[in-house]
């Protein structure tokens, strides 16, 4: 039973990414949406933490929220998968349940 | 799959309502069934028909109404949260002695039990909040 | 075997699912703690398998001796003591969240089971529906 964890706040504003990572068991999925996408970009203070998390989790980022914030796939850390809303829906159905870290 | 969505924030203040709308649209395009969209906390403010946002940007309440009409969605505003925040239908307005009601088309006011039922009956419950 | 009398047939109808309420916010600064508790109370009538977890700032929700007189807001912390009467008995607190806030279970208004964060993770995995506000 694998869980999808959604994180919607910036890692610089709030600690929900940390809470999610602390509680996501190996094999979980993490989906970054809304301001949460700021954790997906390379070259930030949290990039190494996110790269390290890839060892145990699949990490996804919502493309529309990336673009809205003036970034593109080029800015996204290697290994993160960019999805659109259709992909978001697919993830929700592929994983067994969803937990929102607000 | 049967999906339910919980919206915990009002329109515009947070992106939650927009994200929920985009997710709901995408789920419908993929022919999933939306069992219910439940509005709690400030999310009940999605259900006022008196919003007049600027014309050059989206009208979130109208988007919900349009989705509800096109796909026969069940949009439920929690009565307890609605009473706190002043979202009323005609019955509630009469019951509470208020001089008007403001619920938007396509929304209905009901109890928290509808959220629990959604959790019980749906394959997935997805939450959008702050 | 005789048919049950109508008043004997009081088993919950329908599926029983494992619901977890994740409480991560402090009380009073926002409404989430109060309105989350209201869901739990109403939901009790549905006789589901309910677990409450208090973690991060959520541990502050059940801190003893809340005195809200001077902020002019109702003190709703006594309501946590009513949960037992609603058959909501699985209350857990995360150890690391307590410790990092300088709290112990002696500071809490209700009896809880303390879990470390790995145990909380495992408990989350067992759930079917996870509600957060």
**CATH structural fold name of chain A:** Hypothetical Protein Ychn, Chain: A
**Helical residue percent band of chain A:** 25-40%
Look at the helices and sheets of chain B and give the structural class.
Answer: alpha/beta
The tally of helices of chain A reads 4
Q: Which class of chain B in CATH terms?
A: Alpha Beta
The N- to C-terminal Cα distance of chain B equals 26 Å
The overall pLDDT of chain B, averaged over residues, is 98
Helix/sheet category of chain A: alpha/beta
Discrete helix count of chain B: 5
CATH topology of chain B: Hypothetical Protein Ychn, Chain: A
Considering residues with a beta carbon less than 8 A from a beta carbon on another chain, report the largest interface and each chain's count.
Answer: A-B, 19 and 22 residues
Strand line-up across the major sheet of chain B: 4-3-2-1-5
Which spans of chain A have pLDDT < 50 for at least 5 consecutive residues? none
Our count of domains of chain B comes out at 1
Could you say which overall geometry of chain B the principal axes of the C-alpha atoms support? globular
Describe the structure.
The complex is a heterotrimer of chains A (102), B (130) and C (133). Chain A is of the alpha/beta class and 102 residues long. Chain A has one domain: DsrEFH-like (Hypothetical Protein Ychn, Chain: A), CATH 3.40.1260. In chain A, 30% of the residues lie in helices and 22% in strands. Chain A is globular and about 35 Å long. The model of chain A has no long low-confidence stretch (mean pLDDT 97). With 130 residues, chain B is an alpha/beta fold. Chain B has helices at residues 16-29, 60-71, 79-85, 90-96, 113-121, and strands at residues 2-7, 33-39, 75-78, 107-110, 124-128. In chain B, helix 1 (16-29) runs parallel beside helix 2. Chain B is globular. The model of chain B has no long low-confidence stretch (mean pLDDT 98). Chain C has 133 residues and is of the alpha/beta class. Chain C has a single domain, classed as Hypothetical Protein Ychn, Chain: A, CATH 3.40.1260.10. Helices cover 23% and strands 18% of the residues of chain C. The longest helix of chain C is centred in the N-terminal third of the chain and has 12 residues, at 32-43. Chain C is globular. The interface between A and B is medium-sized, with 19 and 22 residues.
Q: What does the secondary structure layout of this molecule look like, with pairings?
A:
The complex is a heterotrimer of chains A (about 100), B (about 130) and C (about 130).
Chain A: E1 3-7, H1 16-23, E2 29-32, H2 47-53, E3 58-62, H3 63-68, E4 81-83, H4 85-94, E5 97-101
Parallel strand pairs in A: 1-2, 1-5, 2-3, 3-4
Chain B: E1 2-7, H1 16-29, E2 33-39, H2 60-71, E3 75-78, H3 79-85, H4 90-96, E4 107-110, H5 113-121, E5 124-128
Helix pairs in contact in B: 1-2
Chain C: E1 18-23, H1 32-43, E2 49-54, H2 79-82, E3 90-94, H3 95-100, E4 113-115, H4 117-125, E5 129-132
Parallel strand pairs in C: 1-2, 1-5, 2-3, 3-4
């Amino acid at each position: 039973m694998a869980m999808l964890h959604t994180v919607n706040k910036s890692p610089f504003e709030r600690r929900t990414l940390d809470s999610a990572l602390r509680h996501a068991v190996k094999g979980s999925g993490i989906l970054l949406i809304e301001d949460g996408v700021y954790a997906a970009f390379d070259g930030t203070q949290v990039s190494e933490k996110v790269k390290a998390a890839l060892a145990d989790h699949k990490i996804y980022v919502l493309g529309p929220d990336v673009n809205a914030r003036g970034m593109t796939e080029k800015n996204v850390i290697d290994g993160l998968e960019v999805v659109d809303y259709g992909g978001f829906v697919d993830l929700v159905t592929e994983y067994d349940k969803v937990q929102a870290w607000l | 799959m049967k999906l339910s969505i919980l919206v915990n924030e009002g329109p515009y203040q947070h992106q939650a309502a927009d994200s929920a709308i985009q997710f709901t649209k995408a789920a419908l395009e993929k022919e999933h069934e939306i069992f219910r969209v439940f509005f709690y906390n400030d999310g009940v403010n999605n259900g006022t028909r008196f919003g007049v946002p600027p014309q050059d940007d989206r009208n979130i309440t109208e988007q919900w109404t349009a989705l509800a009409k096109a796909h026969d969605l069940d949009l439920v505003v929690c009565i307890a949260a609605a009473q706190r925040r002043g979202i009323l239908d005609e019955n509630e307005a009469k019951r509470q002695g208020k001089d008007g009601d403001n619920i938007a088309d396509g929304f209905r006011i009901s109890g928290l039990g509808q959220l629990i039922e959604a959790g019980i009956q749906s394959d997935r419950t997805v939450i959008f909040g702050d | 075997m005789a048919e049950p009398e109508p008043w004997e047939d009081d088993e919950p109808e329908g599926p029983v699912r494992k619901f977890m309420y994740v409480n991560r916010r402090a009380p009073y600064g926002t409404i989430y703690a109060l309105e989350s508790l209201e869901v739990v109370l109403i939901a009790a009538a549905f006789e589901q398998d309910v677990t409450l977890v208090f973690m991060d700032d959520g541990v502050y929700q059940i801190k003893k001796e809340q005195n809200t007189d001077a902020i002019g807001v109702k003190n709703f912390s006594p309501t946590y003591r009513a949960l037992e009467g609603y058959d909501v008995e699985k209350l857990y607190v995360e150890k690391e969240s307590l410790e990092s806030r300088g709290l112990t279970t002696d500071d809490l208004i209700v009896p809880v089971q303390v879990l470390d964060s790995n145990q909380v993770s495992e408990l989350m995995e067992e759930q079917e529906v996870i509600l957060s506000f």
